[in-house]
Amino acid sequence: MGTKIFVSYKYADNDVAFLDEYNYGLYSTARNYVDYLQNKKFSGDDLNKAESDDEDLSRFKNDTIKSKLRDKIWDSSITLVLISPKMKDYGKPEEDQWIPWEVAYSLRTETRNSQRSLPNGMIAIVLPDQSGSYDYFITHETLIDDSGEENEVRTLHTDETFEIIHENMFNQKEPTTSIMQGHTVYFGECSYMADCKI
Fold first, then answer.
1. How many C-beta neighbours within 10 Å does residue 147 have?
2. Is 134 exposed, middle or buried (CB count within 10 Å of its CB: 0-12, 13-18, 19+)?
3. CA distances for 61 relative to 30, 66, 102, 120, angstroms
4. Which has the closest alpha carbon to 142: 157, 153, 126, 128?
5. pLDDT per residue over 32-82, tens digit each?
6. What is the DSSP track for 87-111?
7. Mean pLDDT in residue range 150-167
């Protein structure tokens, strides 16, 4: 039996790398990556609980949209959050944007008709920007530890995304860390929300 997967993403973010096979215009959007994931990365039994490409919820009132999304998230066990360059609208409060709400709901334990839905497993999938770079969210640098040894360190710029995503990364209660050149460096699994690149 496959996994029921909800995908949270900014539908119209077009500051992402071009996907030839999944492009339907002059540029690609985060939505094109949902099609790519569903067709190329999900197993044959996995079920995408995100809205389908022809399912336009924008014509509904917010309460109706929330009700439909609640049903989809409640019935899923994994939430994929597509990190894209323009996923966050800095001109709007976070509480007026859908991704933070979807992530928050994915993290809840909820009971319906004596059935219980536990918090979803969370995976942040970082999309490349139009130039094919991930530098808007992931950067690398070399830091020197106390013994003088060089260490290649990966930095996730979680402060550039929504607060709820920031709070669910590097949030292990007792992480293994080290201070290198004034930076806190985490080792091993240290986040509830795992991350990967596409």
1. 5
2. middle
3. 23, 9, 16, 26
4. 153
5. 999 888 887 776 666 766 666 555 555 657 777 788 888 889 889 999 999
6. -S-TTS-GGGSHHHHHHHHHT--EE
7. 95
